[in-house]
TrEMBL record:
<dbReference type="GO" id="GO:0005576">
    <property type="term" value="C:extracellular region"/>
</dbReference>
<keyword id="KW-0624">Polysaccharide degradation</keyword>
<comment type="similarity">
    <text>Belongs to the polysaccharide monooxygenase AA9 family.</text>
</comment>
<keyword id="KW-1015">Disulfide bond</keyword>
<keyword id="KW-0964">Secreted</keyword>
<dbReference type="GO" id="GO:0030248">
    <property type="term" value="F:cellulose binding"/>
</dbReference>
<protein>
    <recommendedName>
        <fullName>AA9 family lytic polysaccharide monooxygenase</fullName>
        <ecNumber>1.14.99.56</ecNumber>
    </recommendedName>
</protein>
<feature type="signal peptide">
    <location>
        <begin position="1"/>
        <end position="20"/>
    </location>
</feature>
<dbReference type="InterPro" id="IPR005103">
    <property type="entry name" value="AA9_LPMO"/>
</dbReference>
<dbReference type="Pfam" id="PF03443">
    <property type="entry name" value="AA9"/>
</dbReference>
<keyword id="KW-0119">Carbohydrate metabolism</keyword>
<dbReference type="GO" id="GO:0008810">
    <property type="term" value="F:cellulase activity"/>
</dbReference>
<feature type="domain" description="Auxiliary Activity family 9 catalytic">
    <location>
        <begin position="22"/>
        <end position="228"/>
    </location>
</feature>
<keyword id="KW-0732">Signal</keyword>
<keyword id="KW-0136">Cellulose degradation</keyword>
<dbReference type="InterPro" id="IPR049892">
    <property type="entry name" value="AA9"/>
</dbReference>
<comment type="function">
    <text>Lytic polysaccharide monooxygenase (LMPO) that depolymerizes crystalline and amorphous polysaccharides via the oxidation of scissile alpha- or beta-(1-4)-glycosidic bonds, yielding C1 and/or C4 oxidation products. Catalysis by LPMOs requires the reduction of the active-site copper from Cu(II) to Cu(I) by a reducing agent and H(2)O(2) or O(2) as a cosubstrate.</text>
</comment>
Amino acid sequence: MKTHFASLVAFVLTAGSVSARTVFSAIAVDGVEQGHGIAVRVPTTNNPVTDISSPSIICNTDFIQPVSSAVASVPAGGVVSAEFHHTPAGYIGPDPADPLDPTNKGPVIAYLASIPDATQTDVSGLKWFKIFEDGLNPQTHQWGSDHLFNSGGFANVTIPSCIEAGQYLLRVESISLSSATSYPGAQFFLSCAQLEVTGGGKASPATVSFPGAYTPTTPGITANIYGDSTYTVPGEL
């Protein structure tokens, strides 16, 4: 009886930790869905990245093969909707933890990086600039993760109208802070989309590098979501 009870507890705890997971696996451009895995580097699992010094913090790793060779065209000023679901397969039917467990709390953040070829394998050394963040609203007590859940998994990111035309990677992450009272604890669920931005201007935003943009002492990398009434989203916008 004790053995059965212990096994049941282990199963419940495992299921709970798995249910918090999510995967960015598709995009829509100005409301037009591109299709599952099209122009997105989709990881094979919904395991989080927890080491902010790892190259996996750039675009994740172990992608479903073959990685999409598509590059989605989006006008500067247009909206790219990053679509998250519980598993790498995308939406597979009713699931109380799709796109993520609603008890999972944390911010949603998006960065862009100019790149010679949006389909190239090597993503090291890119310069990233933040274009979107959705953290904690202290008035409503809702997080970016709450908005992601309520929208069915869509995070709507506006591409700045002032950036230069060219190819970019769009890095979108949902960060779980449920175990982030100390580092390591935050869980990063992220992927990169391959974009061709058309139109635009000549702006040169300030940039950061991944790894490097986040450190264990960066505000927002650790947090107590059960006690803190305010929250600073990692990185400057």
